[in-house]
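Contributing: when you submit paired examples, paste them exactly as shown. First protein:
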Amino acid sequence: MVRADQAGYAHYGVTADWRTLREYLARIEKQGIGINFATYVGATTVRRMVLGDDDRQPSADQLAQMRSLLEESMRAGAVGVSSALEYAPAPYAKTDELIALATVASRYGGIYATHMRSEGDAIMAALDEALRIGREADIPVEIWHLKVAGKHNWGQMPAVVAKIDAARASGIDVSANTYAYTAWSNDLSAFIPPWAHDGGNVKLIARLKDRAQRERIRQDMLHASSEWDNEWDEMPGPEAIIIGVVHKPALKPLLGKTLAQVAALWKKDPMDALFDLLIADDGLTEVAVFGMSESDVALALQQPWVSVDNDSEGTSPEGVLGQDHPHPRAYATFPRILRKYVREEHKLTLEDAIRKFAALPAQRMRLIDRGVLKEGMWADVVIFDPATIQDRATFENPNQLSEGMEYVLVNGVPVIERGHMTGALPGRVLRGAGYRP
């Protein structure tokens, strides 16, 4: 796995010197961090450790090995098990495999968090699967970044909300989160059907170079499907895709351009430009994709059981991170919600927004000593002016810090003071209920 993922580590100058979650958390504590950090264990991580990147099903012994690895990670402090079922090799996992893993996490007080198998044409079936996993594994379910994706599906959020409300009323512990933008962000390779990822990126690139298999991929992408999340069919057009991260230095001039612009620059059909960009960048390109409607996004945000996430890794305007062109949500999610949905559109109260930022996610993650201002709790405190706080990051120019955040205290120590970073590293690793020293 380390060899397969080496290009990603090299891009950020990271040496992968850990082999278990316990070792990873120990490394983070040793180096020091400015934030508090908790993590799930990926269902796909334990699958890759046992089965690699291939499209195959585990034997009984292999599934037992996966469950053992998951148990080890829960004892190391994971807060639950997560899945991202759109991204290969995750789609190769059947529901029963996920139930078997979630059952282990449940025994250790964990939750099951999922990027569902579909957020588009098959979203209702994907919801059914997530709810079944929660019911049969007896585990709380968190739906990551609840959305209705694809122009064919715009306007379906009321039906999605009704289905989740009905599940909650029936006794299933299910909730969700959102970053409240109409564009998502993911790997460009997610546009490629799952079968073409069998064996990992090296084999994906080989298939894209093979004329017959490339044509098969093209035909799959040109037709709507309930079997996989066909993002090409879901988006309005190639102008809706913005290039965000590339790993080959020669491709950096493409950052911030749309796929339509890249296709024009290369004098190619947009789909061929997508294929050739994946080939040129070893399949590692990341993009933002406009594929949601504002009314659906706002309705999800307003649900009392929906918290707020930014669905992004940490970033910075400086250094190697500042060379990427990330989705603006990396910088702007929380200030944007305070500006747009609280101050300007009055779709949330300030109190409800803060609850969705702090108390609700802490409660969901079972962090019983965090998330509210109360004596005896850890002092994770933000101080801002609700009349002036605002986002600056845009899709055109994302690497911009927001304005109006005066102080941030992590565990009682200022990491931002009078609007400037202090350099302090008071963050802690937060471990789940199943942690065993």
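Second protein:
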Amino acid sequence: MDVVVPLLVILAGFGAIMAGLAWIASRARRKGVGGSVLGAVDETFHPAAYQPRIEIAQQADRKVAIPSAGDPAMP
């Protein structure tokens, strides 16, 4: 019995950590911030994947909203 309680505490702590990481991963996927979090890892270990991600981010920043047909003219 002396070994069971500490083992259960360790397993519960491990389970809580894993649940927290899963929650963080799901929030990152929903908000689309996963690329910025792992950018340094991709830059180091997989530069072929890192360069296109930078280009995509730059193109997304450069996009200008195109007015619809019924929108008033912008000055």
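If you have annotations for the second protein, write them as plain sentences, like these:
Residues 1-31 form one domain.
The chain has a mean pLDDT of 80.
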